[in-house]
């Protein structure tokens, strides 16, 4: 369904590629997470698939089309094969839930009768039956994302791309949204989801593609976000001084003696280097989660 062959994307005026020699294949009906720290190339990879960006090297084939040879006039037909969902929902604020979803069919020239029958079906599928007349501002974030998913799926595209669809949602709602994407996947739609949401990735046990600086560094079936490097937070438990340094210290600096209730060891930043931590963990702690 999607095949990258040594695909590279270097943005104009950029010195290093955002996507760097990626080769991989995503089969029809797969559900794939794309993970990696901020700036690792996840969104660029999705934009290449929908031909919102053009690769600067290699070959990319999507839904039977060689994208480097696809004339501009055929891009709309490619896009009809691909539904897209984003972190910020991108709903039309002045249209109701029904109108937001119907609009996706109207622009494709679908007859009214089909719109009338299909929109309620898909709203039911995403769990929004009864909310057709609401406007986006009358919905929670999770509900807005359901509308966006309904809109992306109403045309039953063979591919659904989701770029951090849970980025603005709390963990419980995030899991519900990914479960909805999973249901859509089980209708046969190939789902590719870029995410930082390691709890969801770990819970779903799907294929995980990992990028680092544009390079493919991992591709694991039924993988975990935590494979390789868990984004860990090193807690800083040094006490925060509750009062200003003693006025007796003329230069405003104290003499290194602890000022609060903590011990000298607690005041020493070096004391917080955990010598027991394996290299991968320490590296992950240094990198952070990217958020
Ligand atoms: N339109 C653009 N023009 C120039 N450089 C870009 C553009 N979009 C992304 N980049 C650069 O390409 C690299 C990859 O960015 P990309 O947005 O694909 O990463 P990402 O993994 O999606 O990050 P995040 O997790 O923050 O969304 C980054 O160095 C970024 O600065
Ligand atoms: Mg991104």
UniProtKB/TrEMBL annotation:
Q: Where along the chain is composition biased (Basic and acidic residues)?
A: 269-282
Q: Where in the cell is it found?
A: Cell membrane
Q: Which Pfam family, just one, is annotated for this protein? A: ABC_tran
Please give the PROSITE patterns that the UniProt record associates with this protein. Answer: ABC_TRANSPORTER_1 (PS00211), ABC_TRANSPORTER_2 (PS50893)
Region Disordered: start and end of each range? Answer: 230-291
List the keywords (alphabetical): ATP-binding, Cell cycle, Cell division, Cell membrane, Membrane, Nucleotide-binding
The record's annotation in InterPro entries points to: AAA+_ATPase, ABC_transporter-like_ATP-bd, ABC_transporter-like_CS, ABC_transpr_LolD-like, Cell_div_FtsE, P-loop_NTPase
Concerning SUPFAM superfamilies, the annotation shows: P-loop containing nucleoside triphosphate hydrolases
- Gene Ontology biological process terms in this record: cell division
Enumerate the GO terms in the molecular function aspect. Answer: ATP binding; ATP hydrolysis activity; transmembrane transporter activity
The record's principal subcellular location, in a coarse class, is: membrane
Gene Ontology CC: one annotated term: plasma membrane
* Membrane association type: Peripheral membrane protein
Residues covered by the ABC transporter domain = 2-238
Q: How does it assemble?
A: Homodimer. Forms a membrane-associated complex with FtsX.
State the family named in the UniProt similarity comment for this chain: Belongs to the ABC transporter superfamily.
* Its job: Part of the ABC transporter FtsEX involved in cellular division. Has ATPase activity.
User: What name goes with this protein?
Assistant: Cell division ATP-binding protein FtsE
Please report the organism this UniProt entry assigns to the protein. Answer: Humibacillus xanthopallidus
Q: Which gene encodes it?
A: ftsE
